[in-house]
Amino acid sequence: MVEVETRSGESNFLFIRGIGAVEIRSDNDTLGMQSMFYSPELDRNVLSLDKLKLQGYTVRKSGDTCKIFPMFSSPVVNSVNDVNGLTKEEELGLKEKQRMIELSAVNEEYKENFLNSYFETLNVSNDEPDWSLMIIRAMEFHNFAECKSLLDMIDDKEFVFKYKHELEGKFEEMVT
Asked: In this predicted structure, what is the pLDDT of residue 72?
């Protein structure tokens, strides 16, 4: 499992289903990268510049494009199997994909158990009233001091994480 923070400051949990090698093709260049995470919940390919640098890659940015250089350049040998027409990497990829499909039930159970234990650690109890939630819901905005009190609440990261949806609604109400 890996936590990804978005530009909006919202944290998303993504579950990694596998780790493997990928090839990135650009123009006439092919770059083989090891230890890449596979997460089916992601709808796009994501590269972390920090992680690339930790693995010894050099990244040069120019405008809205970048070029990735390995520390030690070596050509990618990718022979094609005459029987099935696949390269070694494609064969390994298909085997890994099949293994991930077979493990999907196990992964879903792990994901459910993890999320249940995570939410149990939030210490939300139905027996006691949540005074913070009651305060947020009772807030009204008639003057600047009342608006400032909401802004003061969102200074605390853990508080915002716990009451994100309630605070979003109150913030919209305040702006309106």
From this structure: 61
